[in-house]
Amino acid sequence: MVDHPIPPLQEFRDKIVAAYGEANARAMTQSEVGALSDLIKQNGGDLSRSKASTITTPVLLITGEHDMFVPPALASELAARLRTAEALVAEGAEHNVYGDCPEWLTQTILDWVDKH
Predict the structure, then answer these.
(1) Rounded CA gap, 97 and 105, in Å?
(2) Rounded to an integer, what distance in angstroms lies between the CA atom of residue 1 and that of residue 70?
(3) Which of 7, 25, 42, 49 could form a disulfide with 16 if both were Cys (CB 3.0 to 4.6 A apart)?
């Protein structure tokens, strides 16, 4: 991530390096990857798209219009693989939807929970 970011993550990489320094940014991202890898292993080891159809509970996927980690197209693709999923896009938001539009997010979740 820090040394060889994919193009959509270049801006994020630059921000964390500017804020924390290159060594600290590298340590943070390596730590996060390690933690997520451990969670995946502890929970069956497969978070693949092929397993998405096995989820039967209602699912609400929310992404920001400018989310570089989970772009709207990816959220929509995943929702299409789930039996009971809905994907919504927070207009103008990035990955931090709760910070970019907290009122919209709160109301959207409350409305969704009421329906389910």
Answers:
(1) 7
(2) 16
(3) 25
**How many Å apart are CA 89 and CA 67, to the nearest integer?**
9
Task: Note the pLDDT tens digit of each residue in 46-102.
Answer: 666 677 788 888 999 999 999 988 889 988 988 998 888 999 999 999 999 999 999
DSSP one-letter code for 91:
T
- Residue pLDDT, tens place only, 9-52: 788 889 889 999 999 988 888 887 777 777 777 766 666 667 77
90 three-class SS: strand
Inter-CA distances, 19 with 13, 22, 23, 27, Å: 10, 9, 11, 13
Length of the chain: 116
Provide the sign of the torsion angle of the four alpha carbons 98, 17, 68, 38, taken in this order.
negative
